[in-house]
């Protein structure tokens, strides 16, 4: 009968610990990337809302220039892969308000998306110069 040493009994333990540690590292890495994608989506929604509201506030286009389309301006300001939705949210009186909603895509396999990000911006209507 042969007696097994301590080293022989622990031979596969290091491999199992390594696999568990790599899984945790991958999860933490994907969570960090997902947080960055969510922050980027929120930032893009704000940029689109400001662009749309600014375009709508320009009531006095320069001679010969067409008035900018606020929905087109808001959509163009957002990365297309975020699938932006630009809507007028109000703006009676001296201001115009636009809202942009974008999808927050998922980088985690098996999860379709992480909801939406919505931002609203209001700009004052510019008065024509006399």
Short key terms for the protein model shown above:
alpha+beta; Septum formation initiator; transmembrane; rod-shaped; 3-stranded antiparallel β-sheet; 3 helices
Question: How is this fold's topology laid out?
Answer:
Layout: H1 6-9, H2 13-57, H3 70-76, E1 85-90, E2 95-105, E3 113-124
Antiparallel strand pairs: 1-2, 2-3
What's this, in brief?
With 130 residues, the protein is of the alpha+beta class. The chain has helices at 6-9, 13-57, 70-76; strands at residues 85-90, 95-105, 113-124. Strands 1-2-3 form a 3-stranded antiparallel sheet.
Description:
This protein has 130 residues and is an alpha+beta fold. The protein has one domain (6-124). The protein has helices spanning 6-9, 13-57, 70-76, and strands spanning 85-90, 95-105, 113-124. It has a 3-stranded antiparallel β-sheet with strand order 1-2-3. The longest helix is centred in the N-terminal third of the chain and has 45 residues, at 13-57. It is rod-shaped, with a radius of gyration of 26 Å. It starts with 5 loop residues before the first helix and ends in a 6-residue tail after the last strand. The model has no long low-confidence stretch (mean pLDDT 85).
